[in-house]
Design goal:
It is a single chain. With 139 residues, the chain is α+β, with helices and mostly antiparallel strands. It contains four helices and four strands. A four-stranded antiparallel beta sheet has the order 2-1-4-3. Helix 1 (10-27) packs across helix 4 (123-135). The model has no long low-confidence stretch (mean pLDDT 95).
Length: 139
Amino acid sequence: MTRLIATLTLDDAKLMLSASEAKAAEFGIAYNIAVVDAGGHLIAFVRQDDALIGSIDLAIKKAVTSRLFDKKTDYLAELAQPGAPLFGIDQSNDGNVVIFGGGLPVVRDGQLIGAVGASAGSVEQDIAVTQAAVSVMNV
């Protein structure tokens, strides 16, 4: 049986990146921003001029992590503390899970359609950059 899955499109991703870049400009920080589809695969990525090279991988992995677990990465960080129910989750998936703020799922009509990840500033700034992306999706 064929099953149709709703997902972000390249046009959606471009819109999200534009909103994220505008938010990053407010902070005066060069950002790395990644958008993944419903399957967790990269749709679009931007590395602003002079953005930290080490943050490239973090932005992508935050987006993928958010999609893998259908949760905000800052929420996963809370659940991954010693003694918490998901302690050690960051070692799953061949260690490719990033559990600090800046990864956010994108949901439309109750269905997860992708995720966004950002890295370069503080955790709070990374979260704000991803929230800007999601806000333009009217979800």
